[in-house]
Design goal:
Chain lengths: 114, 113
């Protein structure tokens, strides 16, 4: 069975700082990779996804992620965060062509101080 | 386009009771998945339905069940509720089965007392 680990449970940073959230998964086959964000009081929203092709994926709100197959990693980055990026971020994986069974990481709570 | 709609938003039940949660997917979406979110266990997959058939199932006891109707709407049922079933239950829909992103609803907050 696949598993997903997110290295940081909590991150606190100031506005304009750069953000990088780590995500590693364990599965030997072909996977689809996702980052979801949950803003306070809101539902989970898709930030970006990787299915195939260019391993550097750009998402909404200035976020990007890089898939490194050899490291089983899919780290999320944003060069300059804003207070509105305060949220919980979830990395998720599903096995390609095996349905919509997403395995989520434990989440990283990000607090951006104004 | 309307998003994924879950009803009710909040529920309070007593141990031993049963509960039914409802989910209306985005129009045109045929896949509906259910997840349980708790502070301790995080987001865990319950099951997925596609065209009224259960395609995937997570590691939950048989007290958790679901179904999907011909209009893609889905319900999940939890029988003989336990305190540990208190959680946010999320429904997500997508166009196809796999290889398309999930769109989540706001969830149903279930409290078991």
């Amino acid at each position: 069975a696949q598993s997903v680990s997110q290295h940081n449970h909590h991150v606190i940073l100031s506005e304009a700082a750069s953000l990088e959230l780590g995500c590693n998964y364990s599965y030997g086959g072909t996977v689809n990779l996702f980052w979801y964000v949950q803003y306070p009081g809101q539902h989970l929203q898709l930030l970006l996804k990787y299915f195939s092709g260019d391993p550097l994926v750009k998402g909404i709100k200035g976020f990007e992620a890089e898939f490194i197959k050899s490291k089983f990693s899919f780290n999320l980055r944003k060069p300059s965060v804003q207070w509105s990026d305060t949220a919980e971020y979830f990395c998720a994986v599903n096995v390609r062509a095996a349905g919509n069974k997403l395995t989520f990481g434990g989440g990283t709570r990000v607090l951006v101080k104004p | 386009k309307a998003g994924v709609t879950q009803t009710p938003r909040y529920l309070i039940k007593t141990r031993g009771q049963q509960v039914t949660l409802s989910c209306s997917p985005i129009s045109g979406h045929r896949s509906v998945s259910w997840y349980q979110q708790t502070p301790g266990q995080g987001l865990q997959f319950l099951f997925e339905y596609f065209s009224e058939t259960q395609r995937n199932k997570g590691n939950f006891p048989g007290r958790f069940s679901g179904r999907q109707f011909s209009n893609s709407r889905s319900e999940m049922n939890v029988s003989t509720l336990e305190l540990g079933d208190s959680a946010l239950y999320l429904c997500a829909s997508s166009i196809n089965q796999g290889d398309s992103p999930l769109h989540f609803g706001n969830g149903t907050r279930l409290t078991v007392t």
